[in-house]
């Protein structure tokens, strides 16, 4: 099980130091995440426990903005994805972030999650490897970020080397299947 992060744009701020937006959106495609792209099924959060999720700055556990268990962070799953609303505390970090969000300097979100290997599928579609996330094992944070994973893979906690190895393993398995089919077809002729 590997800790992973994904990001998305579209966040706003209100005058009472509340920020909100979509931490993830269903049935959309990510940017290249190290040899593959990714999409999240609309039911991926159906069985996910969201009772203790934290809102962070740049996935930094020292920069907590809100939390579901004390209701300073509200999460709502709708037809678009996972919407969040976070009432910020009166701290210097929160005031700074609020100002940056309000100005539009920081306007993207991310989420941290765990997957079980059985909760996603890798498929080649039109020459592109696509990872289909069907179910999250757990979601532990939504973050306001400067560089989101959907646009810049360097914010992902999973190393690029690991992602490339997974893609290479997938390609090797696909080649083996194609070779086996070719051999079987040759024997039929």
TrEMBL record:
Question: InterPro entries annotated for this entry?
Answer: Peptidase_S78_dom (IPR054613), Prohead_protease (IPR006433)
- The answer to whether UniProt assigns keyword Magnesium to this entry is no
| GO BP: any one term | proteolysis
Q: Name one GO molecular function term.
A: peptidase activity
Residue span(s) of domain Prohead serine protease: 13-164
**Keywords assigned by UniProt?**
Hydrolase, Protease, Viral release from host cell
The domain of life is Bacteria
Stated name of the protein: HK97 family phage prohead protease
Species of provenance: Brochothrix thermosphacta (Microbacterium thermosphactum)
């Amino acid at each position: 099980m590997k800790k992973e992060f994904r990001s998305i744009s579209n966040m706003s701020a209100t005058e009472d130091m509340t920020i909100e937006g979509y931490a993830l959106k269903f049935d959309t495609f990510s940017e290249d995440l190290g040899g593959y792209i990714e999409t999240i099924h609309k039911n991926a959060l159906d069985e996910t426990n969201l009772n203790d999720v934290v809102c962070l700055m740049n996935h930094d556990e020292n920069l907590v903005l809100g939390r579901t268990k004390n209701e300073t962070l509200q999460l709502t799953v709708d037809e678009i994805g996972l919407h969040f609303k976070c009432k910020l505390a009166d701290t210097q970090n929160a005031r700074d972030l609020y100002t940056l969000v309000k100005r539009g300097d920081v306007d993207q979100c991310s989420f941290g999650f765990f997957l079980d290997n059985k909760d996603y599928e890798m498929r080649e579609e039109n020459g592109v490897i696509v990872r289909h996330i069907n179910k999250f094992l757990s979601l532990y944070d939504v973050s306001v970020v400067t560089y989101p994973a959907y646009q810049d893979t360097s914010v992902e906690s999973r190393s690029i080397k690991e992602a490339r190895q997974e893609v290479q393993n997938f390609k090797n398995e696909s080649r083996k299947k194609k070779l086996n089919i070719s051999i079987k077809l040759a024997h039929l002729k």
